[in-house]
Amino acid sequence: MISIPFNMPIVKERLKQHSDIKNIVLEMINTAESSTDLKNDTNITDNITRYDWPKGNTKRKWSQFLKLYLDPCISNMLTALGFETFKMDLIWFQQYVKGSAHGWHIHGANYVGVYYLELGESEPPTQFLEPSDKDFSLKTIDAKEGDIILFPSSAWHRGPTITSDSRKTIVSWNMHLEDATTTIKKNYI
User: Fold this and answer.
1) Cis peptide bond prior to 54, omega within 30° of 0
2) What is the CATH number of the domain that holds 146?
3) Under DSSP, is residue 74 helix (H, G, I), strand (E, B) or coil?
4) What is the average pLDDT score of the chain?
5) Per-residue pLDDT tens for 80-107?
């Protein structure tokens, strides 16, 4: 077998309204129904402090509010990937404090989004395993609080262990990219 290296198409953009909405979204998340008991959740085996997976629907108060800002930003990011539209299936939050982490995993749908709602300067964002011709290499995207990243759902990724006293809060979602851009349709299809 020959492994052909192919860089994963990952895009990043800052949510322009981050500083305006951060505290509003955090207040809604902090009062939202959530779970802390990973023993009863067969889908998660890591040390995530607080989360609302698998409730992940788009109809909760905090997600409806946040989607007003996320959706236009995501739509803008899709162009770099050659797509016009998307459908978000699930959206959820995860919070981490010192010592907590989310190990290597993949997602459903065809793309995943992560919005870094809270991320201390000393904490690493999502890390990826990138296939190479002989093995895998560890990649960390240079993302900061307020950034959004989109990446293929089949990419192995993790939330590294929090080592500081600052809390990390991310919002993640599974999405289907749909409809090729006019450029793709005109030149390649």
Assistant:
1) yes
2) 2.60.120.620
3) helix
4) 88
5) 999 999 999 899 999 999 999 999 999 9
Supply 20's token pair.
């305006």
**Contact indicator for 126, 143 with CB cutoff of 8 Å:** yes
List, for residues 112-170, the tens digit of each pLDDT value.
Answer: 999 999 999 888 899 999 877 678 889 898 999 999 999 999 999 999 999 999 999 99
Q: Hey, what amino acid is at 89? A: D
Q: pTM for the full model?
A: 0.90
Domain span including residue 164: 11-37+44-188
Give the position of tokens 């299936």: 89
Q: Per the domain annotation, does 4 fall within a domain?
A: no
Instruction: Provide the residue type at 72 as one letter.
Output: P
Q: Quick one: angle between helices 61-78 and 18-30, nearest 10?
A: 140
Q: Tokens 């995943």 identify what position?
A: 112
In the block, tokens 């802390």 appear at 36
Cα distance between residue 69 and residue 4, in whole Å = 38
The burial class, CB within 10 Å (0-12 / 13-18 / 19+), for 14 is: middle
Q: Is residue 3 part of a domain?
A: no
pLDDT tier, 69 (very low <50, low <70, confident <90, very high otherwise): very high
